[in-house]
Design a protein that fits this description.
This protein has 301 residues and is mainly alpha-helical. The protein has 16 helices and no strands. Helix 4 packs antiparallel against helix 5 and helix 8 packs antiparallel against helix 9. The two termini are 24 Å apart. Keywords: TPR repeat.
Length: 301
């Protein structure tokens, strides 16, 4: 189950801490740089990365030694796949302000693409500098999980949640970990917490439906999967898993309906899944099942 939805790296904007390396006589230049950086943040959040990059580069003309600008430019370059420039600006930001937690975190996350040990080092540095940095705890938890250190991973993700209760990313990761460990009760509890934060999160409803199936809570499973579809009528996995749920409970017409809805969204993918999925065994031999897998007479999207 997947549920992570994020901009993983941090974008810095104007604050008193961002004036590292500047004297009072530079205030006019700082104001100009700050204006460009503020506009860059708007573009970044709108995923207009080229425009954001142009604004940060203009800001750097006025404030070439402002660490936050180099940090931001590194993040923008990384989003565009320009990894060489990203690394160059992250390193420059780190040179200008070696203890800045945002820089340490962003560099650590960037280096995660190139090896867990290097990323782990910079994230530890981040948390040594600022132990109340929830994103660093969350990514540290993900790294520890990849390294097989499950209990430490759960502990790190728990710290991320304590420090930033409204951020659902750590809860989704914890839910996935508990699911993979076979602890469906704990997985469901994390999903319930997510839904208290955002009751319209279709991924959380879908995953809660799967957890309920494993816990043999049939009514809750059906309700959760239907809620996911209510929020997103074209949610492929929710239709497919609801078809499986209905098939296993001998509700053949409802199963075929949702299988048809899933196939209308991705006929080839659904055919590949369905041919191997024993949860749909009660549909085999039904002419409508064969029609769906062959893409015939599917419901409109």
């Amino acid at each position: 189950m997947m549920g992570d939805k994020n901009h993983p790296q941090s974008f810095e904007w104007e604050s008193s801490e961002n004036k590292s390396g500047f004297e009072a006589s530079d205030e006019h230049l700082m104001q100009l740089a700050r204006g460009h950086n503020d506009r860059a943040k708007v573009y970044y959040e709108a995923e207009r990365f080229a425009d954001a990059e142009a604004e940060v580069r203009k800001a750097l003309e006025y404030a070439p030694n402002w660490p936050a600008l180099h940090d931001n430019l590194g993040t923008i370059c990384a989003e565009q796949g320009n990894y060489q420039d990203a690394l160059m600006h992250y390193v420059q930001a780190l040179r200008l302000d070696p203890k800045r937690p945002e820089v340490l975190y962003n560099l650590g996350y960037f280096l995660l693409q190139n090896g867990l040990d290097t990323a782990h080092f910079f994230l530890e540095k981040t948390l040594d500098t600022d132990p109340n940095y929830p994103d660093a705890w969350r990514v540290m938890g993900e790294i520890l999980y990849e390294r097989g250190e499950i209990s430490k991973s759960i502990s790190s993700l728990g710290k991320a949640i304590q420090q930033k209760t409204e951020d659902t990313r750590a809860r989704f990761k914890l839910s996935d970990i508990f699911w993979e460990q076979g602890d469906y009760h704990q997985s469901a509890q994390q999903l319930e917490s997510i839904l208290k934060i955002d009751s319209n999160d279709q991924i959380a409803w879908h995953n809660l439906g799967l957890s309920a199936i494993m816990l043999e809570e049939s009514e809750r499973a059906e309700t959760s999967l239907l809620k996911a579809i209510e929020i997103d009528p074209e949610y492929l996995l929710a239709h497919y898993h609801l078809a499986c749920f209905y098939a296993e409970n001998f509700r053949i017409s409802e199963s075929l309906y949702h299988l048809g809805r899933a196939a209308a969204l991705d006929t080839e993918g659904v055919r590949e899944w369905a041919l191997e999925d024993d949860k749909l065994d009660h549909l085999r031999g039904n002419p409508r099942f064969d029609e769906i897998l062959n893409g015939h007479d599917l419901p409109p999207r």
